[in-house]
Amino acid sequence: MGLACIHIGTRGVYRTAQRTGDTELALLASVVLGEVAPQRLYTSQRITDVDLTPYLEKLADGSFALEPPDAVVERIVAMATGGPDRRFRGEALLGAHIVAHHGTPSQQEKVRATLDQIAASGDPDFASFAAWSRDTLPSQTLLAGMIERLQ
Fold it and tell me: Which residues, at least 6 apart from 26, have a Cβ–Cβ distance to it below 8 Å?
């Protein structure tokens, strides 16, 4: 959604710059427009790297089973705790939320330790989100919605 808003807004800036003859602004807007597709691909790749949907299954009794590879959990932890691009940390915390409650025991332990660390950090953007991810069971609606995306 954010990239779409940037794209639409920048196209408007570009048209205005063309209409007013502001070539410097038109050049700047064209550079931003040229970054939209690469940013979309980059975002898609980062989100796909931590997507748990392929590893989530609804069982006959209505409960859910999650069996992600440890490598996916490692990527979730890495994305949640570091990297210069903070915009992906929220997505990682949502993944951590699910693993903390439905992953294997060792995955739950690793993710809960990470969530404890982030919750205790005082980070104004993510500390409360990490505590919520650790302390709140994922809703049945959330898990069912993830599975529906695959169908």
Answer: 14, 17, 18
